[in-house]
């Protein structure tokens, strides 16, 4: 059987209104917050990484494999960002969705999701019963993403499905995102 073509998506086009400034360029451990998410996406078992970023956001230079592609998007609506990402990954059998403001995704989570998705609609890590990130979407989810509007992500789609597979993760970092400057101190 042929291995599935898997892409990682990093969503990085949001407004960051709670942060008060350019959140994804804020430094964490000496580098922009976004770079941590891109590195986590590159560590996933993927053929390529697609970063959907707002115009002007520094996305870095990423030599080596897997390659990193950048799609620029003026809209900050979550649904538009996700739709642009899925359009860029249309040739894939499945796509990981990473968020640009989640810098501490544990190593190995993505590989475990890839191993358990099977014929499921999606696979997600969860800690203490609460789903987290990244999310691995099968290509069956791609048409449903096109129905999203405004600041709606895939959460509604995933909650109504009975064929989402979960990986119980011992690390609460699957929930940690940076919303405010003080969150960088907790990272």
From TrEMBL:
SUPFAM superfamilies to which the protein is assigned, alphabetical: Nucleotide-diphospho-sugar transferases
Domain MobA-like NTP transferase: 8-162
Alphabetized UniProt keyword annotations: Magnesium, Transferase
Pfam families, per the entry: NTP_transf_3
GO terms for MF: transferase activity
Name this protein carries in UniProt: NTP transferase domain-containing protein
Provenance organism: Novosphingobium soli
